[in-house]
Each structure stands twice: as structure tokens, then as C-alpha cells.
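User: Before I run my own analysis I want an independent prediction to cross-check against. Here's the chain; please return only the C-alpha cells and, at the end, one sentence I can use as a sanity check.
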Amino acid sequence: MTRLTGLRRALLPREPDPEEPSPTARIVEVPMTAVDRRRVRRRLLAPDGAELLLAFPTGTVLMPGRVLGETGGVSYVVAAAPEEVAAVSPRSLAEAARIAHAVGNLHRDFVEDGNVFLVLWDAPIELLLTRLGAAFTRETRPFHGRSSWEHEP
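Assistant: C-alpha cells:
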């Protein structure tokens, strides 16, 4: 492994409690897209310049709020990075149910975010929402759901 100039390498020596950072640690949020949160064995550059070496078990999903590790009084925590989403504004509960059912049939997460629902944007989602007559906009926002191939039933 080569050392990159000017970077600190954080080996993340202990397996942290995945839910709670140390109460005295400084928190550094590490933004990750839905796809990035599945890549659990890799090098990652944190916003503070530390190089994080991730080595979580296969199948681990790093959801926002998960502690990646702690070193030197710093807790590295997963944050949802902004990415392209369709922000859907159903006009009724019945319409919300129809849209959620159709999106779920494409094995996509349909995540509530304030007064809208978010789904990762791509051409098939745009076509589906247009065919359903749904009110939606294409936006760049943090997405807290899973990537398109990991939908949970």
C-alpha cells in the first residue's frame, strides 16, 4: 500500500458501536451515495483529509448515521450524499399507494422525505412516473434509501 502525500491514514482500529459515536469524539460526516454505501472494502478519503481503510463483512450496508470507526478522538460517520432523485408529490393517499406499489415492483426504495417521496432517478423511473401521471421533479438531494438493486420487500 502506498502512502499518499499529505494524507493521514486512519486504520480505524476498533469495531465501533454502529449506532453511537463516542460522546467525547469530534464527528466527521463522510458523505456516500446509495451505491457507495454498499462498497465496504476500499480506501476512502474523509472530508478532514484522513484516508479510511474500510473492511466490513460482505453484505454490510452502511446506512446514514452508521459509525465507520474512531481514531484519535475523531468519529467517522456515514452521511447521505446528494444524488439525482425524483421528488414525488402525490395528490392523495390513494395516488401515493399506487405510485409506491409501482416503484416497489421495479425493486426501488420509495423514501419519505418531509412532504415528498424520493426515489433514485433514472430513465425507467421517469417513464413510470410520467405514465402514472405523478407530480414529480428531478432534484439533487441526499437519499437515505438503498440503491436500486437492494430493495427490501
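Sanity check: The domain at 82-150 is CATH 3.30.70.790 (Alpha-Beta Plaits).
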